[in-house]
Amino acid sequence: MEFRQIVLCLLLWVPTAFSQSISNEDAHAQMDDLNQLIYQYADKAMVQISELEQALEQHSRSDITRLRLNLLKCEALMELGETKAAINVAQMGDAQAKLLRLEEARPYFLNCLADAHTSTGNLKVALPLFDAAIRLAKQYQQPQALVNALRQRGQIDTDTENFGAAIEDLRLALDIYPDLSTQARNWSWPPIAYIYGAMGNLFYVSGDLKQAIHYSNLAIQSTDVEGKVRHVLVRNAAKMHFDNDDTARGEQLLAQARAMMSQLTGPIDIASSYAIIASIDLSRGRLESAEQLTQLASSTFKSTNKKTLVMRSKRLLAQIKFAKGEPEQALQLMQEAIHQGVELKQFYDLVYFYQIMINHYADTNNYEKAFEYQQLQYQAQNAATDRLNDARFIQYKARLNQHDLAQTQAQQSISQHSQDKTTQLSWAYSIIFVLGMLLIAILIWYLINRSNQRYLNDPLPIDDALPTNQKLDAMLNSAKKSNSPMSLLLIDTGNIRQVDLPVMLDELKEKLREQDLLVRFATDQAVVVLPYTSTNGAEFVGEQLTSQIKAWQPDTPVNIGIASLQQFDTLPSMVRRASVNRLTKRKNVDSNNVL
């Protein structure tokens, strides 16, 4: 009888133990699929996340698995429009990542948290969070987090008409995207169609319809474009084609977008799509359809207490009423929208609202009223600009604080390293004390010999300082005259032994091009001048040199400053700017992966 009980227990234990041993691997495979499903069908993804949570309670004890599932939950909540819940999950996830010392997970939760604050218009909080996420993603080799942060920050810059910064972020995201599959552990990443779509939207807003349509087509033709992703891309592409006077293609895409409405399940997604299609119908003169869709959207926004969206739906309905020749109802709706905009401090929306009122009163020859709303528009524009400037200032201040912190940590690390070396060499000081007279004699002989041979055995890679200075000036002048880029790297050699420095500089020269110039600038600094090289190219060269220098100072960080040539620059000004903006990058000995 006892033998049968033992056999039965073993039969019950073996499947359980086996399922627990593979549960983490299976869970991550499911989460890879969930990552795509979140952007396509967020409601279905949320159901599967709940089921997986229950399964993990029974079969898994992995902190990483649970943490990643919480991250996907945060992303799903954002897709469903549950902003407050997403903020709670993101804050808890970031705190848990700190507690578990899983720093690589932090940029993902910071991305989700920043996205949530962006959706509420709180750019003061969102922008520094995106910067922190980008910094951590670079530090811990997380291209998936980096791509998502660059995409979302690029969208903010597009919305605030900071087009130069937006295109830089989005192009970098597209360049990095092929490297996502090389990441050691998957966490979360957006579909490439969203990055193409963001690039298309950037060109659309900036007025380049040809490029906007090009990137829109790339987005639609991407793999795994289903559900909400496809609907959003097709709907936006329809508007682009209408504005490009390609009515036939626009109508074709709009019909596809209408047909795909059934694939949207979240009430906010459905209502938002109704409102956007209504705006397209308004521009096409289909006023009855536009009014019906706007009323449906407004009803959903009211029931879900989305005050900002309710305000915008009233503005859209007012525009429809104006187009239908019902100015009294339109003015009433506009007054309600303006009142809500003032309460919610949505200054960018107010600028648009006031413009509608200005146009109406100008068309009806009521110039006094038009001027009154023009003054209100001016005030709203100033308030919007002040808010954006405050957000940018806080973002810039956070960057400076982080830079100062990095420099302080580097200095502390160098100081600690020096103290350790002093302790390790304490035995040498004892020998010096015992053999003082002998060592003094040897030292005197060494100094005399070095003085006599200084010019014969100069360790510097440049024999004559004057020709080198002339060559540097010539390179600067040539770059200015030809209006070609030129960058400068400032290398801290203070942690390299003087006897090793010439050998190291020779090795660095082998990494450079023939036209590049490497010189000693000071006792503890070297300068690399890179003609025809932009800032991005200089950063790439800096990363290559970092791995080479690291071999000579394995215990201390490598400090390289970067500066790019400006029209009125001199060599000293470039060196000063490179010194101020010196970058400290920590690299593992066996890692040469550059994000």
TrEMBL record:
Residues 484-595 form the GGDEF domain. InterPro entries: GGDEF_dom, Nucleotide_cyclase, Rev_trsase/Diguanyl_cyclase, TPR-like_helical_dom_sf, TPR_rpt. Residues 1-19 form the signal peptide. The chain crosses the membrane at residues 427-448. SUPFAM superfamilies: Nucleotide cyclase, TPR-like. SMART domains: TPR. Keywords: Membrane, Signal, Transmembrane, Transmembrane helix. The keyword Nucleotide-binding does not apply. The keyword Transmembrane helix applies. It comes from the Bacteria. This is GGDEF domain-containing protein.
